[in-house]
Amino acid sequence: MGFPEEIISGVYLIGGPNISHSEDAAIFLVDCGSELVMIDSGAGRTAGRLEKTILTLGFNPENISALILTHCHIDHIGGAPYFAERFGCRLVAHDLDAAAIESGDPVETAARMYGTVFPPTPVDHRIKGEEETFTFGTQVFRVLHTPGHTPGSLSVVIERNEKRVLFGQDIHGPFLKAFRSDIGDWKSSMAKLLALEADILCEGHFGIFRSKKQVRTYIEGYLKTRDSGFPSNLT
User: Fold this and answer.
1) What is the CATH number of the domain that holds 10?
2) pLDDT 10s digits, 156-209
3) Per the structure, how many domains does the chain have?
4) Rounded to an integer, what is the distance from CA 166 to the centroid of its chain?
């Protein structure tokens, strides 16, 4: 496996297919000074490895104040019970995906698809509106409701070194009835993300895009694909 990567000062890619495990979506750590925030937690099989990675970077995992879960799928939430139980960090998710997390629903969490089980896990803070703002240490986080892939999909925005960093996990889909996906909602969400004019996009499965042009091209590319009649997978 590979090594963690500093994307911009104090923002790290600490897990994912080439770092922690092939099942893991991208996992991010943000240094907020006196506190740490994680964005997603992988599929769960390598939570202990993620802890060691955080220590290797010189951080104390006990300083993780919050773990923001961008949606309810196992490759993003699987490590959440480990970090919540071991370090007491608060789990944040949108209200529309929280029930699947708290019940451990095998279909909506995609745990069955991965051949595993996700234990029912309490969500400490349910986001119910279109946007909430959190401050951890010196860092402000805007958490946006961006449904489409799932009803409660979230995107996270921070300002860092005069750059706007967007964590847009799984904005590419897929779109399945089992996930309660909605293409119309997704298109509206993509318009919201394009309007941000982010400088950096941290995507869940397809890498880091490091300029406004790359971010816009990536998102618009998927919109054009859908508009050209590409199958929605909603079958």
Assistant:
1) 3.60.15.10
2) 999 999 999 999 988 888 999 999 999 999 999 999 999 999 999 999 998 999
3) 1
4) 10
